Amino acid sequence: MNSAELRNELHNYIDKADDTFLRMVHAMSKEYHLNPVVGYNTDGSEITQKDLIKRVKQASARVKNGEYISHEDLEKEVKNW
Prior knowledge:
By secondary structure, the chain is mostly helical. It has 2 domains: about 1-35; about 35-80, no CATH class. The protein is about 70% helix and about 10% strand. The chain has helices at about 5-15, 20-35, 50-65, 70-80; strands spanning about 35-40, 45-50. It has a two-stranded antiparallel sheet. The chain is elongated, with a radius of gyration of 22 Å. It starts with a helix and ends with a helix.
């Protein structure tokens, strides 16, 4: 089912929905827009926008604290893999 078909079907559901369904769809939509999925981990789990911002801040702090490996050292380490 393509996007246009999905939209049409969802519109039909919403037009006929009771309050419970509407509230669930609204809550889900609101959460999605507040914290959208921006990527996936290698295990297939989602990375949300909040997760990514947190990771970037943590990585930046590590770099500021000198917790990183130089390009040259990384090249040496890769040779031992």
